[in-house]
Amino acid sequence: MKLEYTDQQRAFRAEVRAWLEANVPTKPLQSFDTAEGFEQHRAWERTLSTGNWSMVTWPRQLGGRGCDLIEWLIFEEEYWRVRAPLRVNQNGIFLLGPTLMEYGSEAQKQRFLPCMATGEHIWAQGWSEPGAGSDMAAIRTKAVRDGDHYVINGQKIWATRAVYADWLFGLFRSDPDSQRHHGLSFILLPLKTPGITVRPIAQLNGQAGFAEIFFDDVRVPVENRLGDEGAGWNIAMSTAGFERGLLLRSPARFQATAESLIKLYLANRDSADRDPALRDAVMRAWMEAEAYALATYQTASLLKAGSRIGPESSTNKIFWSEMDRQMHETALAILGARAELMPHAPDAGDVGQWLDGFLFSTAGSIYAGANEIQRNIIAERMLGMPR
Amino acid sequence: MKLEYTDQQRAFRAEVRAWLEANVPTKPLQSFDTAEGFEQHRAWERTLSTGNWSMVTWPRQLGGRGCDLIEWLIFEEEYWRVRAPLRVNQNGIFLLGPTLMEYGSEAQKQRFLPCMATGEHIWAQGWSEPGAGSDMAAIRTKAVRDGDHYVINGQKIWATRAVYADWLFGLFRSDPDSQRHHGLSFILLPLKTPGITVRPIAQLNGQAGFAEIFFDDVRVPVENRLGDEGAGWNIAMSTAGFERGLLLRSPARFQATAESLIKLYLANRDSADRDPALRDAVMRAWMEAEAYALATYQTASLLKAGSRIGPESSTNKIFWSEMDRQMHETALAILGARAELMPHAPDAGDVGQWLDGFLFSTAGSIYAGANEIQRNIIAERMLGMPR
Amino acid sequence: MDFTFSDDQRTLRDAMRDFLAVEARPELQRQRWQTTDGRPAELWRQFAEQGLTGLSVPEEAGGLGLGDTDWVLMAQELGYCAVDDSVVDSCWIAVALLRGLPQEHPLRQPWLEKIATGQARIAVGHRINPLVADAHVAHLLLLEHNGALHALDPQSVKLTANDSVDPARRLFRVDWTPTAANCLLDAPAAAPLWQAALDRGALATAAQMLGLSKRMLDLAIAYTAERKQFGKVLGSFQAVKHLLADVAVKLEFARPVAHRAAYALSNGRPASIHVSHAKLAATEASALAAKNCMQVHGAMGYTWELDLQMYMKRAWALAGAWGDRSFHKARVADAMLKPGAPLGPGSTFTD
Amino acid sequence: MDFTFSDDQRTLRDAMRDFLAVEARPELQRQRWQTTDGRPAELWRQFAEQGLTGLSVPEEAGGLGLGDTDWVLMAQELGYCAVDDSVVDSCWIAVALLRGLPQEHPLRQPWLEKIATGQARIAVGHRINPLVADAHVAHLLLLEHNGALHALDPQSVKLTANDSVDPARRLFRVDWTPTAANCLLDAPAAAPLWQAALDRGALATAAQMLGLSKRMLDLAIAYTAERKQFGKVLGSFQAVKHLLADVAVKLEFARPVAHRAAYALSNGRPASIHVSHAKLAATEASALAAKNCMQVHGAMGYTWELDLQMYMKRAWALAGAWGDRSFHKARVADAMLKPGAPLGPGSTFTD
């Protein structure tokens, strides 16, 4: 155990910091769930890629820097320290990217990763279907082989970013006679393919953060399949698995929220202290964000040392989603009557982002596997309880 | 709505108060889960009965005062105001008593209620069996009809007070071919009947608060059956039902705990306030105890006005058991290092009762139907959710 | 001692429930969001017909002459349907302020009559709320300034709209100038009125949050009875049942607190601790209802198209209205931790 | 940056785990409750043989010369088996106090050697604990008085036994007279030692509570895998699964905090905030473990005969040892709310 950074790690942090301070947009971007904001964020992805910062863990030749996970955590800490923009391509860089790295052919990596790094391809994900929300094995959308193409028919839902994104990855039933998690294939396709209809779904905040996608004889070349035909389930499970979970929700993000919450509390201490639970919740926010960071560093260290991650990683999702919601609820309680104001309201001042963040946090216990499902998984796979 | 007491109610309160102040033992009694403490408590029951205070809602001729539920609440408030002793005969007066009143023959009422009032018969309950804890319909202990007797064979467990009590009531399978909640009968029997073996079970505090009871050809006269043969389930459900739940856990008890907790907090405020959650928990304790009292007054008023209680009463158990545990956990947190001391420890001072109370409170979410079962009941019967 | 509502009160409540089930159904409420002022005159006319606008207007001014215990039931129904703020603000809070004016005050009788007949809405601005709800449709503004009570013609003030997370809420910053001419009562005279207005406002939000919670629960029960996952209806999963059972428990024990507070207010007894208790309990119940009911809806719960959002957002918005958690906890703490406070068994109905 | 334990550390931990699984199994622990002093000499001899007593005694005094990061693993194992206090008090906390004495101090080397060989136990009395654990079997008492460090012969003090809810705990009030003769270090010199002792004591309780939590969870998993209700094994009910999953989550995120605190202590870096954080997180995890694991045992969980009680009671008892929740929350608040405290992203490993 050695909890000091190496000189190399310190130098890396300094480099990240310097680049970000020089390049991070000074004016906040608009939400990437609007057409204009989406393109602003795409531009930021391109800017990041000019510094090879798109995904520092990727090899240099694919647009990264060959960093290890500790350096990635350092990058994230610096990224969130300056409150840099959210990553519009998170489905790509955090979910599909690592999956491509593990299951993609050399040609697929060359074809997809650099375009992902530059933001030329922004990715949406297509897991859920009507009737197959948390129960992903209930997927029915068919991809029927027809020569060197698949012909896709069916419907996906809750596809995040799909309203404005360029490409989609998802699971499709390539064996029409198969059941549950058998006979599924992992397929990548451009959202502009003929036969695709995207119906935006407005979120709580009114913005089209996800979409329903209808497939009507959509033809996709077989080379767009990732891994073997019928092996999609295992690949998807790995996509949803720990390392990506770690990438998707880096601790720095929550530490930034906790820090902002402490500042909010200190700025409103006179009123906030009349409710003693608020001070306690603020302390808890900091301690939990810290605990999450420590757990992540421990995991990253183990991975770096060659260990594999066990089923205990399934505790992450519950922990961060509850922490995130709790932090935002605390902020709204501190704000009192101001909490309900939309960010653009004239009297909202600079606190409107807490409402935005709160609304987003309410989804945390639902997406990426509802927390009830996560608890089942923890009980059955980590604790070995009977199904 | 009229939330003032009538002159008659005020007079009643004054009478209760005067009598209790004159009669409540000045020295705390020993635990009724010890042989000596049990008899001390029996003596207190006898004293109560001399003033017709055993169960004020019973008719005068059976040892009560013909009071309504509002007066009963007033009695309880005064009882807990002076922290009078726990009722060793609670299985009798709060559970069996009202059941006898509803389902007993005139002869049974005359035979059992006055002896219950005087403490001559202290009652134990016999619901659970090994393999039939929260699932009471899984009862297997047989009561086979043999002329004018039942012959009982089998085993009960978790029979509270059974180590020192005189009589037992419980459910037995009188139809050997029956399943689940059919074919059960509600039978009363003296624990001294030949063939009964009582094995004390020590609780967390080491005292024998409950027992396992073995029945080996135990002969009980048929007239000891309450209600019809095979009708035991409905009678037992009514015993476990709301009005008794209300009697068993009167709000005054929790208001007394909340009041003591506030005093404990105020006396230790300097250290307690360093943990802001404690002050908040103390406030919550008072508010919840108050809410429970209000809900009970509302229910008592409805009953008095002739309404019947709906399935929403099943929320009570969850509410009071969680409140009670929370209050005691808060007290222990305020006590810090002193919390672990047994009441008799020389340095425990006068705070040892919090530990006792805490241990008891931990059982609240388990007995009388585990809270998980209660939540199922609420969901299915009150909210109408699918089974 | 009788902690029940009368048959009349329940009949009136049931009638309002039936009325709102039709006239304030979600699709209509959504249409109202789209209109400029969000407050259709036709609906207001119907409220007047139903007697809601005049509920606590004295009979001599054309009302029903009822009071806070009636309102606490009505406000739960209004919450159940997420009806807009101008009803409770105009017809409960403002009416009580007007009733508190001296009998001979020239504004008293005419405005009470206009409210009862549905001709007028009144917006109420108290320091505890940084913004004034529904000021844009008010015919009179009752505003607080340094404790005094002022009455203003809406034409004489400047309104700045502020969007709430709840698209049905219409909140305004009101810029205005307090003058002797628009002052109805000076601070000492107005103090008890504003105190009661604040308590009434807080109780009104509490009662609405109880209704909102019940609505969210009902929506969740209905949704999980239909929707299937893993081959079973959602509502048959123990985890789903327990999430909703927990909401039911919170709600069952929040409701009597609001009723008790209404009684105290209605009878001019010390009400602050009961009102604050009611607001805190209702806020907690509705926050849990929003959280758990959204959870059992899955991703659907996060959408604009699901009606659940209307009730969740109102509940979130009302949490900070008429005193936030800090304000009400401080009031409870002041009352319960002061020396000699009556707290133990037997103290529930002593003031 | 490497937040892993070495192979050696894990090997040593595993060996201790295997040893305790036999030598501190519940039935033996229960037998020990019945003995007068509750602390069998034979077991202590075995601890010495295993190298546990000399774990952090310097090699030149016959120990293994290891430190806090090793101890934090060991203490989790000791907690898992609810081993008595004298191990961590004598061999971790007291050893560190002795190591903190000047090299030439006459008590230093001899007592370190005696601890390593298993000939001596030391009890530690700090103001934060009103009572001293295991003073009755100690050969030396290290006591705090107004910040100074005193060493006393147990024969020279008066012990008054105080029963704990945990029958395995042996707590004593120690009546003694501080004198110049029994003073080892005056307050200024002793301050850093006592500060570290307090942190070490708090961390030791935290680590034990982590082990206790794991044990309770393991017992609950085993019980619910066997026991049936309503015709199904208990462990297959979703409500039961979720109760235990929640414990697992708390525990997973409490553990790294204790490890980080151990590193700070071990390296003489500012440790207080990390230790207090660790104690709070472990207390919360073990309280939830006790609650939920008891719950899934049903009435059985409330009995004396079920082994679960041993671990629940220890967890409850340790919650207040070496600083209660108030103490540790105040330390966290002081550190995190002070102006300029490093709190945001990137601050995790800056001191």
Task: Tell me about this structure.
The complex is a heterotetramer, with two copies of chain A (387 residues) and two copies of chain C (351 residues). In chain A, helix 3 runs parallel beside helix 8 (251-267), helix 4 packs across helix 6 (232-239) and helix 10 (276-304) runs antiparallel to helix 11 (315-335). In chain A, the strands form two sheets. Chain A has a four-stranded mixed beta sheet. Chain A has a four-stranded antiparallel beta sheet with strand order 2-3-7-6, with no helix packed on it. The longest helix of chain A is centred in the C-terminal third of the chain and has 29 residues, at 276-304. Chain A has helices at 7-23, 35-50, 69-81, 90-103, 106-118, 232-239, 242-248, 251-267, 269-272, 276-304, 315-335, 352-362, 371-382, and strands at residues 123-126, 142-146, 149-160, 167-173, 184-190, 196-201, 210-221, 225-226. The two termini of chain A are 38 Å apart. In chain A, strand 2 and strand 3 (149-160) form a beta hairpin. Chain A folds into three domains: 7-122, Orthogonal Bundle (Butyryl-Coa Dehydrogenase, subunit A, domain 1); 124-230, Butyryl-CoA Dehydrogenase, subunit A, domain 2; 249-382, Butyryl-CoA Dehydrogenase, subunit A, domain 3 (Up-down Bundle), CATH 1.20.140.10. Chain A has 13 helices and eight strands. Chain A is an alpha+beta fold. Chain A is globular and about 70 Å long. The relative contact order of chain A is 0.09. In chain A, 47% of the residues lie in helices and 14% in strands. Chain C has 351 residues and is an alpha+beta fold. Chain C has two domains: 7-188, Acyl-CoA dehydrogenase/oxidase, N-terminal domain (Butyryl-Coa Dehydrogenase, subunit A, domain 1), CATH 1.10.540; 192-347, Butyryl-CoA Dehydrogenase, subunit A, domain 3, CATH 1.20.140.10. Chain C contains eleven helices and nine strands. Chain C has helices spanning 7-23, 26-34, 41-49, 68-80, 86-99, 108-117, 187-226, 238-266, 272-297, 308-318, 325-336, and strands at 122-125, 132-133, 140-145, 148-152, 158-162, 171-175, 183-185, 228-229, 232-233. Chain C has a four-stranded mixed beta sheet with strand order 1-3-4-7. A three-stranded antiparallel beta sheet of chain C has the order 2-6-5, with no helix packed on it. In chain C, strands 8-9 form a two-stranded antiparallel ribbon. Chain C is globular and about 70 Å long. Chain C starts with 6 loop residues before the first helix and ends in a 15-residue tail after the last helix. The interface between A and D is large, with 61 and 48 residues.
